[in-house]
Amino acid sequence: MKNFIFALIILSLLCSNAFSVTPQDFNEDEFLINFYWEKISALPAGKRPKTALVLGGGGARGFAHIGVFRVLKEEDIPVDLVVGTSMGSIAGAFYCADVSLDKVEELAKTINWNKVSNFGVPSLVEMIVSEKLLSNEKIEKFISEAIGGVRFEQLKVPLVCVATDLNTGERILLRDGSVAFAVRASSTLPGIFKPVEYRQRYLIDGGLSENVPVNVAKLFDPDVVIAVAVSADITKNDTGNVFTILMQSIYIQGRALDEEHLRSADVVIRPKVNEISAVDIKDASKTIEKGFVAAKEAIKTIKTAVINKTEEKYLFE
Q1: Of residues 50, 101, 36, the one with CA closest to residue 73
Q2: Which backbone phi and psi does 52 adopt, to 5 degrees?
Q3: Phi-psi map region of 31: left, alpha, beta (phi>0 left; psi -120 to 50 alpha)
Q4: Which residue in the list 89, 144, 187, 205 is annotated as catalytic?
Q5: Is 86 a known active-site residue?
Q6: In the annotation, is 80 catalytic?
Q7: pLDDT digit string, tens, across residues 56-99
Q8: What is the pLDDT of residues 254-278, one digit of tens each?
């Protein structure tokens, strides 16, 4: 059916003066993708496939998510659900609250650890001496101020933040109440920050239960799952102090699980951020650009996945 329609389109164009591309320049796949995508872009949400965007954790490497957002906006890729872990939940909160990407990029380029936590050499020394974990209340305040204190039901796009129950290891899905609170819980690094109390549970970083939460997205029956993995190359990580050894332990535990989960995604975007440290927030611009480049390279695959899940009757209305 699609080949027949394609032949008719080509014939009509050849018979008109509108078709000026020479045969050797013509790319059938690209032509079809662009043709069908115009149709899909005009479809209402109920007639096009439901698309979930999954944002993995990775500390400062997660700035690459912003570059991915830029491409998705430029290419009019519909997103019906965002699921994020740790830094993925932070980025997801901005996206789902429809904060302008220019503002998000500016915040990323000017952020420092003092703005979002008590993390620093003096506080780490104090933590070791006093055996008291640090607070990450600052991240909740920062997010709340940046997105306007919104609650989940006020978001433009539904968001699910993934955290982990410290006592049971269970994956906890946060999708009601304060968005900033949920983001804080999802990004509470164990061993450094105090667990966040929530409904008689103590929550820590979602990366321990599912760092790239494809399985969580699948619970909501999307037609297409786009996953963004900002994993580390563990062979190149510094392990010269207590903090970096803790981070390396988490990465080792999660690497195999990440790959297993990613296999069930329809599209995987992998920004080349392997060598960027999770705590290196000084060069956000370069990390954002890596996300942009990776998403650009994946656009054809994304559009093809959405087209393939669209009912034919809607493509030719």
Answers
A1: 101
A2: -110, 135
A3: alpha
A4: 205
A5: yes
A6: no
A7: 998 899 999 999 999 999 999 999 999 999 999 999 999 999 99
A8: 676 788 889 999 999 999 998 888 7
